[in-house]
Automatic annotation (TrEMBL):
Protein name: N-acetylglucosamine-1-phosphodiester alpha-N-acetylglucosaminidase
Classification via Pfam families: EGF_Teneurin, NAGPA
Swiss-Prot/TrEMBL GO biological process terms: secretion of lysosomal enzymes
Species of provenance: Parasteatoda tepidariorum (Common house spider)
Membrane-traversing stretches: 283-305
Length: 358
């Protein structure tokens, strides 16, 4: 290499001096496997450091088979991740410390870039390859993957895994809700009675035979039986076992339902009205109030009559006397037998039949 150098381009002195002087040195090369090797030695020209012959020995010790000597001396600087890693010897302006020399060119080495560089924000770039987060597919970390079954078509694949539809649970959404539970993540409890469970998605109660209603709390109405009471009884009196539809009801708990059916048919046939104590009490109260009001009206009328007229019976005739404010005299009013006047005019009378009996 020395013989290939051009003395007329060397600005630091003769070529022999450049090769033999002790100073800071920097070189880059590769080994037999192709691994890149950087070698940087600190020093100060004519004081300490290494010459190129020593640098060759060091490179061979590191297994380097081909190398290039870079600028040395005060320009020999190694920066790793933005931080100076060696001890350059150029003095800082107006300082007693050493500083990096300002240079025009550098050799920059970094890990291979990933494509894309940010791995779509779902992974970490390492030596040119994206290390994707869980459930994100390489090489770009841009596609979700939740197993070969893809959530068993019972859920949605998200970055945190399968988000199951209501009624399903499990890592791959391949399990239905356990008995008695329903809804999203099977967190809701069924509210059913007389049922065989509820729908795992909506929570709708699945009633036992002979029961109906939103929560299966009602027995079948008279004349019906079976699942959801959808079948009509085929008996002469239309009553049957609400569970099986049998017309011959055994002596067991079903006898109550059978008796209830017969009673209901009687009520419907006779147009009977269910006794309601609260309704009866309301009727009695109304009657009492009306009675009090009627009695008050009658008493008021009698009081007014007494204040304006005085009447009495004589020889099957009603005699009335009018009271006036301006005179203390009394006027005798004689009405025909069997008539009662509501005024002083004989023409305005009403029948008074059976007066004595009344």
């Amino acid at each position: 290499s020395k013989s290939l150098e051009c003395d007329d381009t060397e600005e630091t002195g003769p070529m022999e001096n450049f090769v033999s002087i002790f100073s800071a040195r920097t070189a880059v090369g590769h080994d037999k496997e192709g691994n890149v090797v950087f070698l940087q030695v600190d020093g100060k020209s004519n004081i300490d450091g290494v010459n190129l012959y020593d640098m060759e020995v060091l490179l061979r010790e590191f297994g380097v088979v081909n190398a290039i000597n870079l600028d040395g001396g005060g320009s020999s600087t190694l920066v790793i991740n933005g931080t100076t890693a060696n001890y350059p010897y150029d003095e800082c302006p107006n300082e007693s410390f050493s500083c990096d020399r300002k240079v025009s060119t550098v050799l920059c080495v970094h890990e291979p870039y990933c494509d894309p560089i940010d791995c779509n924000h779902h992974g970490t770039c390492a030596m040119g390859k994206c290390a994707c987060e869980e459930n994100w597919l390489p090489p770009r970390c841009d596609k979700l993957f939740c197993g070969e079954t893809n959530c068993s078509n019972n859920g949605i694949c998200l970055s945190e895994g399968c988000h199951c539809h209501p009624g399903y649970i499990g890592k791959e959404c391949n399990e239905t809700c356990p008995e008695g539970w329903f809804g999203s993540m099977c967190k809701s409890r069924c509210k059913c009675t007389n049922s065989v469970g509820c729908d795992p998605v909506s929570g709708t109660c699945v009633c036992q035979k002979g029961f109906t209603g939103e929560m299966c709390q009602q027995t079948c109405p008279p004349g019906f039986f079976g699942i959801n009471c959808q079948f009509k009884c085929q008996c002469n009196n239309t009553c049957c076992d609400p569970t099986s539809g049998s017309c011959s009801v055994p002596y067991n708990s079903s006898i109550y339902g059978y008796s209830k059916c017969i009673a209901q048919l009687l009520v419907d046939d006779q147009h009977l009205i269910k006794d309601n104590p609260s309704e009866r009490w309301r009727l009695y109260t109304t009657m009492i109030i009306l009675g009090v009001i009627t009695a008050s009206c009658i008493a008021s009328c009698l009081l007014i009559s007494c204040l304006t007229c005085s009447c009495y019976c004589q020889n099957e005739q009603l005699l009335c006397f009018k009271k006036t404010k301006h005179s203390s005299s009394k006027h005798k009013l004689t009405l025909p037998s069997g008539y009662l006047s509501d005024s002083l005019s004989d023409s305005e009378t009403i029948p008074m039949k059976n007066y004595r009996e009344s």
